[in-house]
UniProtKB/TrEMBL annotation:
InterPro entries: AB_hydrolase_fold (IPR029058), Arb2 (IPR048263), Arb2_dom (IPR053858). It comes from Dicaeum eximium. Residues 89-114 are annotated as: Disordered. One of its GO terms (biological process) is regulatory ncRNA-mediated heterochromatin formation. Residues 2-227 form the Arb2 domain. It comes from the Eukaryota. This is F172A protein.
Length: 290
């Protein structure tokens, strides 16, 4: 729905993503410099494409009859060269009182802060001053997830929608649940988080969402324990199990076979009205509701 003159983002979809009547897999990477289809650039550069990209997930999903949508949550703005007038205006604005500066758009400010560390490495020798023009309804990973849900995922034909969300992608999914709770519960069959950084208290997640997450989500976290071993948590949300690695960036790759097994069990459980058990041990914490 973008105009020709405004900034645009993109996502990747398989040909059957919106028409597959059975299963749809949605992939969300973490925050930082990674872009659509990547888990970690460090792994891509130093190890291999299997561990560092979403290619294995995409191939496996297609083999098993899923449609696939790959989100692009870090593509939030474009950079354009400032005119002389804009450079002068920026200089004038820097002298504004603190109270006035604090009224600037919160989402853009927080997104810029998260990126400052990474962006200086993208083009450290650039000589021209640039400005960021944010993409409408995609100014943050959270906004992007909601936009793609509203315009694509919710319009798909799939009876069973699945998410794999890594790191900050897990936080974006939880925010999606907060904003579209009824729709997500109605369409999503299971969610695999990999070392997610979401926090149900900081994000003010309601009781009904926490209960749904305990039944339909599993978080594969970095741990020295063997793959799929239950890991205790102080937070009352989805079960946590070991990803079989202590390296955060490897959790999506190491948990890869378990994730698809979890999804298969979720479909069977949905059809038989019995929930899946994603862990080896059943010694989960029983949380007290507040």
């Amino acid at each position: 729905d973008a105009l020709e003159t405004e900034p645009k983002s993109f996502i990747f979809m398989s040909e059957d993503a919106l028409v597959n009547p059975d299963k749809l897999l949605v992939l969300i990477h973490g925050n930082g410099v990674v872009r659509a289809g990547q888990w970690a650039r460090r792994l891509i550069i130093n190890e291999d494409l299997d561990s560092g990209t979403q290619i294995p997930y995409i191939k496996r999903a297609i083999e098993e009859g899923y449609g696939v949508i790959v989100l692009n949550p870090n593509e939030n703005y474009i950079e354009v060269e400032k005119t002389k007038a804009q450079i002068q205006l920026s200089s004038d604005i820097s002298d504004e009182p603190a109270e006035k500066r604090e009224r600037k758009d919160k989402i853009q400010k927080e997104t810029k802060k998260r990126r400052d560390f990474y962006e200086k490495y993208r083009n450290p020798q650039k000589e021209k001053e640039t400005m960021q023009i944010y993409i409408r309804d995609n100014g943050s990973p959270e906004e992007h997830a909601i936009y793609v849900w509203d315009h694509f995922i919710s319009q798909s034909a799939a009876e069973n929608v699945f998410f794999v969300a890594h790191s900050y992608g897990g936080l974006a999914f939880v925010e999606l649940m907060i904003q579209r709770e009824a729709e997500v519960k109605n369409r999503v069959t299971a969610v695999a988080l990999t070392d997610s950084v979401h926090n149900v208290w900081h994000q003010e997640v309601g009781k009904t969402i926490r209960e749904w997450m305990r039944e339909n989500c599993c978080n594969w976290v970095s741990s020295s324990e063997p793959l799929d071993t239950s890991v205790e948590s102080m937070l009352p949300d989805c079960p946590r199990v070991s990803a079989g690695t202590e390296r955060h960036e490897l959790t999506s790759w190491k948990s890869f076979p378990s994730v698809f097994k979890f999804f298969s069990e979720a479909v069977k459980a949905k059809n038989s009205l019995v929930k899946p058990t994603p862990t080896r041990r059943s010694n989960r914490i029983k949380y007290e509701e507040f």
